[in-house]
Design brief:
305 residues; alpha/beta; Rossmann fold; eight-stranded mixed beta sheet; 9 helices; 8 strands; 35% helix
């Protein structure tokens, strides 16, 4: 696993730095500080905070969860991209480094992120944040899975009654375990290899491997948020989906289910592009980055129709 993580960090991590380093804002335009956040029984995880340095008193807040199939990745992965967003959108950011599977199986990583989300909500002064201006949770891939689950948790938790999450950003999210797809949806969620001859033959096996590492029960809504009994009352969602992605169809279906329960969504599909293409094909990622920022602005503007 250590070798796999090293290879992931060298490939995806370095690709992310190459892609996003040209847009890195000046160091004087934002402040960076890492904190240790206690999550359980004295265990602490790292969060990286980014705060604009424009002199305004308070900013909206984005809590970000990195991807990596629940088994790899860290706060460095999206660091450059988040620094740019911090300055461009004048938004404070908390970037979470949760504990990874399989050493820390479900729900440890998820609970780490929830503890960090609560810490962020309680740390408005520290973060120069005003949650009434916007309180967004987001993530990519496995991070998108965690963000979707935590949006449900927070909706039902009285802790957030006066600290409502105002939006969620779900980038290429994992939303349902392949073994837990309800019968009524199976015609929409055929294995991607059957739908597109250019898809990797082992795409489903690869997805299954990550879920195996995560552990947990496939039908648990905190593994498969698409199966949640109700999506009503969730905050508006920005959903970005890649056309050449084994997770494509569950993203499309999730968007439909949210809409049916009255949740506002802003969904974009990138035809013919693979999972996490924005890291390795920066010349193709212009639209992705534009939609990402416009989606955040849409949430901050109150998700107008």
């Amino acid at each position: 696993m250590q070798l796999r993580r090293k290879q992931f960090e060298e490939s995806v991590g370095e690709a992310a730095k190459r892609t996003y380093s040209p847009g890195l804002p000046k160091e004087t335009e934002y402040r960076v500080k890492d904190y240790d956040v206690e999550v359980e029984d004295g265990v602490k995880i790292q969060v990286r905070t980014l705060v604009p340095a424009s002199g305004q008193n308070r900013y909206p807040l984005l809590v970000w969860i990195h991807g990596g199939g629940w088994t790899t990745g860290n706060v460095e992965m999206d660091d450059y991209q988040l620094r740019a967003i911090c300055v461009e959108l004048q938004i404070s950011i908390v970037n979470i480094e949760y504990r990874l599977a399989p050493e820390h199986p479900h729900p440890i990583g998820l609970n780490d992120c929830y503890a960090a989300l609560k810490w962020a909500a309680k740390s408005q002064d520290l973060l120069s944040a005003d949650l009434k201006k916007g309180f967004i949770i987001g993530g990519m891939s496995a991070g998108g899975n965690y963000a979707a689950v935590l949006a449900h948790r927070a909706r039902d938790d009285t802790f957030f009654e006066d600290k409502k999450i105002t939006g969620q950003v779900l980038q290429i999210p994992a939303l349902v375990h392949p073994d837990a797809v309800p019968e009524k949806y199976k015609d929409r969620l055929l294995s991607f290899g059957e739908q597109n001859k250019f898809a990797p033959i082992l795409a489903r096996d690869e997805v299954m491997w990550y879920y195996k590492m995560l552990q947990g029960t496939p039908t648990d809504p905190e593994i498969s948020p698409l199966l949640s009994p109700s999506h009503s009352g969730l905050p508006p969602a920005v959903i970005q989906i890649c056309g050449l992605d084994p997770l494509r169809d569950e993203g499309l279906l999730y968007d439909k289910l949210l809409k049916e329960e009255g949740v506002k969504t802003r969904m974009t599909v990138y035809p013919g592009l693979p999972h996490a293409f924005n890291y390795v094909f920066p010349n193709l990622a212009v639209g992705w980055e534009k939609d990402y920022r416009e989606g955040l602005r849409w949430i901050l503007d109150g998700a107008p129709q």
